[in-house]
Amino acid sequence: MEEIKNTEAEVLSEELCEETGNNPTVETAEQAEAPAPAEEQAPADENAETAKRQTFASKQEVIDKLKELAESSESVDRAELEHLKVVYYRLQAQKTAADREAFIAGGGAAEDFMPEPDTEEEAFKEQYNLLRQKRAEAFAQAEQEKQQNLERKLAIIERFKQLAASPEEADKGYDEAKQLQAEWNELKLVPAEKATELWKNYQLYTEQYYDQLRLNHEFRAYDFKKNLEIKTRLCESAEKLAEVADPVSAFHQLQTLHQEFRETGPVAKELREEIWNRFKEASTVVNKRHQAYFEELKAREEENLRLKTEICEQLEAIDLAALTNFAAWDEQTKAVLEAQARWKTIGYTTKKSNTAIFERYRAACDKFFQAKTEYFRNTRDTLSANLAAKTALAEGAEALAESTDWAATTNKLIELQRQWKTIGPAPHKASEAVWKRFNEACNKFFNRKNEQTKGQREEEEANLEAKNAVIEQFEALAASPEAANAQAVRDLQDKWNEIGHVPFRKKDKLYKRYREVLDKLYKDLHLSAGRRRLESFRKGMEEKGGSELTRELNRLQTALEAKRNEIKNYETNLSFFNSKSKTGNSLVQEVTRKVERLKEDLQLLQEKIKAVREQIKAEEA
């Protein structure tokens, strides 16, 4: 019997050594169960738990939930706490957006909207900070428990060291050793930096203990069988985790199985490698899925960072100096709102970049909207002044709308319309109304005027046709100079003068045509008469001789000099006339025609002087 016990002790020692030397977990038991720091948690944990979280219809429900958690004795998960924070501010943002839409729908301008202060935020922050403090206290307590567990486990190791000192001590302390093992398994968490070394020492001295221990063969066989059943069940559970949809949840469940696998005693030596390989293969599948999930998550976060960076660059590239009018600001505002809408459709970026990219995005948006607010604030006074000026013009037009002084009032309204065009834009809300008021007043007067002067316009159109007919008769005379005579021209002029007014807009063009044909006729008549007078003069000079020719020559030379002086005076006076007004322009044209006739007379005198001199030479010959 003593020999059987020694053999059993050797088997148990080898069993525990191989079991604990092939630990399949990714991290130690203490590391696997250690809570994350108060302000850290993997994003995947939050994503995995999102579907399980409670939904809230109002901010008060969120606050009530915080109060419930604060009053509960259970620890609060950080992911749940952060979820409540996100939900609260999302509800606040939705309320602000709804208030904004209602404000705009009620006729308000988007830039004038001011959100109401959040009266519930103080209560939210109070409960939120209370829970954060509660978590910090729980964390501190957990650290204290870890230290206490460390000290107790060190004591257990020291006791195994004492029991393993001799076979006699090992035999006597078997029951105590089982109690120590049970107590070791109940003591879960220790400081992470001590866990590995602690576990190695525990393995070392428990193995030394079992080396000394002598147990009977039947008892160890039963123990091996029981441990095999437990580890087989753990392998089956690990294999089923490959079918769990959420790889993060499967990974965390696997850590629990690893902990239980390590805490379970050894199996028969010939089955150890087989059962361990089965468990390790199942673990590998779960671990690979877990790693692939986070690699895919990282790739998505990198792509989200790229998309959000593009939006930031788009917002930062806006040339604020080029936005110089309301239309430009409105168009650019639409582009910014579209960029903000795209931002909301993009998910989280990497943890280290998420805050920085959001701050960059918020700074770019704030810069644009602050500049827009400043622009509209600076232009508000100008818009008000323009509205006042346009209102004054509208009142002036309304005061003239009932006038019957058609000509004077027409000029006044035209001047008001000219002034209207020189005034800049008015506030958008009032611009259409004041324009409608001004336009209706002007239309009212001109409609009355058109109705009143309808008969006058018909008469003026008839006069226009009559004067066109007279001009056509003038043109017929100008086309046949031999048929033209001064009396016919004067008769047509009298007929022209007897015809009344023509439409004002056509008057200048008609008169210009009349003057052109009349000037041509008078010029042709004047030249024709001059030639007849020159021929008659020459015949008269042939009958004269001697002193008569000399006296005629002196008279003609005196008349020539006088004519030159007269032309010079007229040309000098022309340089002082102002031809910008219609009256001044007409006077200049009249004087110019007179100068041309004087020059024609001057030429006729020169021809007469030439004829007299030729006659004197003929007599002398």
What does this structure look like?
81% of the residues lie in helices and 0% in strands. It is mainly α and 621 residues long. Helix 5 runs antiparallel to helix 6 (121-163), helix 11 packs antiparallel against helix 12 and helix 12 (269-316) runs antiparallel to helix 13 (326-345). It is rod-shaped and about 185 Å long. It starts with a helix and ends with a helix.
Task: Quickly describe the structure.
It contains 21 helices and no strands. It is an all-alpha fold and 621 residues long.
Ordered list of secondary-structure elements with their pairings:
Layout: H1 2-21, H2 29-33, H3 43-49, H4 59-71, H5 78-105, H6 121-163, H7 167-172, H8 174-186, H9 192-212, H10 217-240, H11 247-263, H12 269-316, H13 326-345, H14 351-400, H15 406-422, H16 428-452, H17 454-479, H18 486-498, H19 504-543, H20 547-574, H21 582-620
